[in-house]
Amino acid sequence: MSAIRESGWKSGVALCALMVAGCGSDMPGPQSGLIALTGATVIDGTGGPAFENGVILVRGDELACVGTAADCPVPEGTPRTDLTGQFITPGLVDAHVHFDQTGWLDGRPEALATDVYPYEETIQYLWDDPGRWHRAFLCSGITAVYDVGGAVWTVTDEQATDTDRPDRAHVRAAGPLITHVDYNAPFMTGMLADQPVFLPMQSETDIVEDIAFLQSIGSQAVKVWYLQPDPADVERLDALLMAAGAAADAAGLPLLVHATDLREAKVALRAGADMLVHSVGDQPVDREFLDLLAANETFYAPTLIVPGNWSEAVIAASEQSVPVIDDPNGCVDAALRDRIDNIAAYSDFAGQLSPEDVAARRAAYQAEMDVMQANLIAVYEAGGRIVTSTDSGNPLTLHGAAINPEMEAMQAAGLPASAIIEMSTRTGAEAMGLSDRIGTLEAGKLADLIVLDADPREDIANMRRLSHVMRAGFLLEQSDLQLYTAPVE
Predict the structure, then answer these.
(1) Phi-psi region of 210 (alpha: psi -120 to 50; beta: other; left: phi over 0)
(2) What is the DSSP letter of 88?
(3) Predicted local distance difference test score (pLDDT) of residue 13
């Protein structure tokens, strides 16, 4: 029996109620008295030195003291959990997720097999249980997420957005995306009539009406999906993006912009973008870009792994091979696993890519990755504000589990592991506007943290060595959070 259970702080029955059945108003809260986590190396997320043999005192859902044994003496009789030899960091923040996408090829309107998984049914399946992603996030050590674009329900549904409960990650949600893209394009169809994912951007009147609509549903940001315009329409559309930035600012909402080419990214920065939700991937960033990024204090969200995952998902469909799921802690939703395993659903796509096509796809992604990683280092060396972000919900970029390969791709680009820890905690909380409550381990902040069996400062891959997750003062063993257990061979 674990030290947690030996302390009597939470019973197995409460754990079951919390993570399996969900918790309602009758769910017992964390113990009102003090508890202590002792012995671990505490990396508090502030960038300061770690506390060796640290002490964390938790009262209710808040941190009462974080520091050394001298800083935080443990009163006699306080229940303790001994974590000697382990490492504690703040809970992770994924600054780019999509609640209304599955993580597989069925999760977007342009899905390959909408005859097998009709898009409207898929959206309903997701809407019926947004908690599936919360479970996956917490299981992976993610205690806060930024949903940077989706159907109306991703903002309005309490099951998705009610974060004042320990079985939910914190959420900020932008809601429907404003875009200039033609509404007749294939990826714009298939939406539920009352659940638009996209809003039009063809005039300043559109923008005014769009932002009024976003305010009416409670959106916490304005997201613009700004793809490379037709050369004949560049001036008009650039002006509309500038107008969207001004309108978002007037509404008091952060401006988030999808702009993956350098030219469009610069326009987004001139429009006042608070976050670029992807890397610049077409060419190296230049001094003008870096100066604009610094002047705006814009957050830069790399999303390095998602293009390659898209390619591998399409390749799997063509080759009729079940793709390997990178799920180090058993956090991928079981129903999603079933859909990924059912590769036969994509039999109509079998053989559509030749071996040469497959090689070309992989080479193109590697070339893009090389540019994205070089740009990430340029932004880091220029002092840019980088946030760890996965774009989870896209094919094979899986809610929760994607955080590990994303952080590892950032490290492979040349970022120090210690910097990635801050990007995945404090900076992510700042991007979400929640840094007064989460993101660092400091007295008075919410008790959201993770416990690891190895030092993430030595290798960010040690973030996979997750042993416990605390959310709002509830400390759970990672094994109790797992959604999938591999069969014994």
Answers:
(1) alpha
(2) E
(3) 33
120 pLDDT above the threshold of 90: no
Q: What is the CATH number of the domain that holds 64?
A: 2.30.40.10
The CATH number assigned to the domain holding 109 equals 3.20.20.140
Q: CA 108, 110, 112, 116 torsion: positive or negative?
A: positive
Q: Which is more confident, 191 or 145? A: 145
Q: Which of 170, 135, 148, 142 is nearest to 61 (CA)?
A: 170
3 state SS of 163: coil
Q: Is 440 left (phi over 0), alpha (psi -120 to 50) or beta?
A: beta
Q: Report d(CA 298, CA 237) in Å as an integer.
A: 21
Residue 15 has pLDDT above 70, yes or no: no
| pLDDT, mean of residues 409-436 | 98
User: Considering the chain, what is the average pLDDT of its residues?
Assistant: 89
Domains held by the chain: number: 2
Which amino acid, 51? Answer: F
Go through 125-134 and write b for each residue having 16 or more CB atoms within 10 A of its CB, e for each that does not.
Answer: ebbeebebbb
* Residues in contact with 369: Cβ distance below 8 Å, sequence separation at least 6, in sequence order: 304, 307, 308, 409
Distance CA 61, CA 236 (A): 50
Task: Let me know whether 96 and 86 are in one domain.
Answer: no
Is the CB of residue 319 less than 8 Å from the CB of residue 346?
A: no
Domain assignment of residue 267, given as a range? 92-308+356-431
Lowest-confidence pick of 21-30, 122-131, 234-243: 21-30
Q: Where are the beta strands (DSSP E) in 161-313?
A: 170-173, 177-179, 198-200, 222-225, 255-258, 275-276, 299-300
